Amino acid sequence: MRTATVKNWLTRCLVGGLLVAPPAFAQDDDDPYAYPEDEPGPSQEQIEEEEAAERRRRNVDQADEFRNASEQEGEEGDFKELAGLDDPNLGVGVELLAGALLLESPRGRFADTVLGLGVRTTWEFGRTFDLEPFRENLWADLRWTYGNSSDGTDFIRGSTSQHYFTIAPAYEFKFGKSDFGFFGQVGGGVAYQTTSITVDANETKVNGLKPLLQYGVGLRGRPRLSSSSNFRLSFRLEAMGYRRGYMNDFFLGGSVGATF
Fold first, then answer.
1. Which of 168, 200, 91, 86 is nearest to 136 (CA)?
2. pLDDT in tens, 193-232
3. In DSSP terms, which residues pair with 259 in a beta bridge?
4. CATH fold of 88-146+164-188+210-259, please?
5. What are the two backbone dihedrals, phi and then psi, of residue 126, each rounded to the nearest 5 degrees?
6. Pair 165, 190: CB distance under 8 Å
7. What's the rounded Cα separation, in Å, for the pair 150 and 195?
8. Concatenated DSSP letters for 110-122?
9. What is the per-residue DSSP string for 15-78?
10. CA–CA separation, 164 vs 149, rounded Å?
11. Is the pTM higher than 0.85?
């Protein structure tokens, strides 16, 4: 009897609690849990943009490093140019030259044209300055040019030899980044002249030395013959003038040789 009363009381309490409790509905934020492997990754466009931004940042950092290095003072207080450290060339060349030597005629003619021969040594002394505008553009020649003329009869005959010894610096205007260019040259030296006059079997010699001014223009080329060597072919086409005293001689010709 007592047990039945307790069961009835528990049953009434459960029914009453269910009637009083508010209904539970699903909320909007009760979405399924998203696992990390289910989340969408960055697109290819986003990856490329991030890589481009990273490259720009590295370039800026590298430029800052170079700028800081250039602004730092060297051991002696000044920034030292390093243009010559990676230059494998000595800048020394030798060439043989030949052409027409136009000697001013003492007889009022336009010129006495003879064969002009010679040799020259070239030194690209602009490399010693460690400045890019001068490295291959500024050079100088040590030059010897020779010509001989003769005229007369079997009884009286005259022969004259001209020797021009000059040192002449030049500046070359390159054709872009090529090994070719146009140059202008001015220098000085001495002209040594030997004259012999033969009358019958008697010969009289007269020698003379005069100061000399050399000037002219030309085209110069120095193409590399091998990518693994410093050896270069060098050649020129030129028009040079020699002013000796009151007389003007001209050389029209070219040269070919090698540069190291």
1. 91
2. 999 888 888 888 889 999 999 999 999 999 988 877 788 9
3. 93, 232
4. Porin (2.40.160)
5. -65, -20
6. yes
7. 9
8. S-EEEEEEEEEEE
9. HHHHHHSPPP---TT-PPPPPGGGS----HHHHHHHHHHHHHHHHHHHHHHHHHHHHS--TTSS
10. 15
11. no
